[in-house]
Design goal:
Layout: E1 5-9, H1 14-25, E2 29-34, H2 43-49, E3 56-60, H3 66-76, E4 80-83, H4 90-95, H5 97-117, E5 122-128, H6 151-170, E6 173-179, E7 181-183, H7 201-209, E8 216-219, E9 231-232, E10 234-236, H8 237-252, E11 258-262, E12 268-269, H9 270-281, E13 287-290, E14 299-300, H10 305-311, H11 320-331
Parallel strand pairs: 1-2, 1-4, 2-3, 4-5, 5-6, 6-11, 7-10, 8-13, 9-14
Antiparallel strand pairs: 9-12
């Protein structure tokens, strides 16, 4: 059987780089298309910060550059695409909705058309639980109403609709994997979560403990949860990577998957994350209290039973202490 080659957009980013490592270890070849904007690095610096595994190559470029995408697909005989590239900061999306609809929808749509021109009929999309907005049922199933409350979630949902429409009109096979809270790092410490600026709770907590950033702000302590702080479903980035591989396998066998939640089905509060980090580090976590953030649901936990049954997938490293220990190993 010939070696499969996958186009990975955003493959230098947090989840993308972990997927690239897993894909190469599974015997696939990977072509990464990334503009490196998430890292603010030159291409040579990105190769140092995110070492590429054997079997992966990096092309700096824009996902909306259709000529480049078609060229890469022809040159490397691409058979499938995994689309991670996009803007991810909820607050920024409220201030700059035009940027989020441009990158996450308009440019992604041009990418989709270029893939279709190149006869690439299998796409795995990095979507988000933000498509649900304020959930009415917890744990949240895929059948829950999709009513995003910010432009980030709207842009992700809009591209999901495009994928569904292309599936009907053009025979596209796709999976839209709706992450809950991606966290953790590669257990060998070589791949880490480094957003600029960092917005995710666990790395902020650890940086605050080492005085690399100000104390963590706990946004709201009066939610209807056991300790009054928000509850989230944290899923290890390596578990996300393995789910993407399983989705590719299903698409290759002619099965279109549609939207699937990726989470553990268990929630942890902000207070529980602080306590767990203190246990791992053996030191207190500097933090302050703040007001609730608009649009933050009290509890956001996945019903991931569909992904578990349809992909034959189970999270392996998503216990809270493991998530934090792996993150510590990657940052120090």
């Amino acid at each position: 059987m010939p070696t499969m080659t996958v186009l990975v957009t955003g493959g230098v980013g947090f989840v993308g780089s972990h997927f690239v490592r897993a894909a190469c270890e599974s015997g696939r070849r990977v072509v990464i298309l990334d503009d490196l904007s998430g890292l603010g690095l030159a291409e040579a610096d990105a190769r140092v910060q995110v070492p590429l595994p054997a079997g992966a190559s990096l092309v700096r470029g824009d996902i909306g550059d259709q000529e480049l995408v078609r060229k890469l697909c022809r040159l490397h005989a691409i058979h499938a695409a995994v689309h991670f590239a996009g803007k991810i900061q909820v607050g920024e999306s409220v201030r700059k909705p035009e940027l989020y609809f441009d990158v996450n929808f308009a440019r992604s749509l041009r990418l989709l058309d270029a893939l279709r021109d190149a006869d690439v009929a299998e796409v795995v999309f990095s979507s988000s639980a933000a498509v649900y907005g304020e959930p009415r049922v917890v744990p949240v199933p895929e059948s829950a109403p999709t009513m995003p409350v910010n432009p980030y979630g709207c842009s992700k949902l809009a591209f999901e609709w495009a994928l569904q429409s292309y599936a009907v009109a053009h025979g596209l096979r796709f999976a839209a994997l709706r992450y809950f809270n991606a966290a953790g790092a590669h257990p060998d410490g070589t791949l880490a979560e480094r957003h600029d600026p960092e917005t995710h709770l666990i790395p902020l907590v650890l940086d605050a403990a080492r005085k690399r950033c100000p104390p963590v702000t706990v946004f709201g302590n009066d939610y209807p949860t056991d300790d009054g702080t928000c509850v989230r479903d944290y899923i290890h980035v390596c578990d996300l990577a393995s789910a993407h591989l399983r989705a590719l396998e299903q698409l290759a066998h002619g099965r279109s998957l549609g939207p699937l939640n990726l989470g553990t089905g268990r929630g942890h509060s902000v207070r529980q994350v602080l306590d767990a980090a203190q246990e791992v580090l053996g030191a207190p976590i500097p933090h302050t209290s703040g007001l609730r953030r608009e649009g933050d649901p009290a509890t956001l936990v996945a019903d991931a039973s569909a992904a578990q049954s349809r992909l034959g997938w189970q999270p392996q490293r998503s216990e809270l202490l493991t998530l934090i220990e792996d993150t510590v190993r990657s940052r120090w």
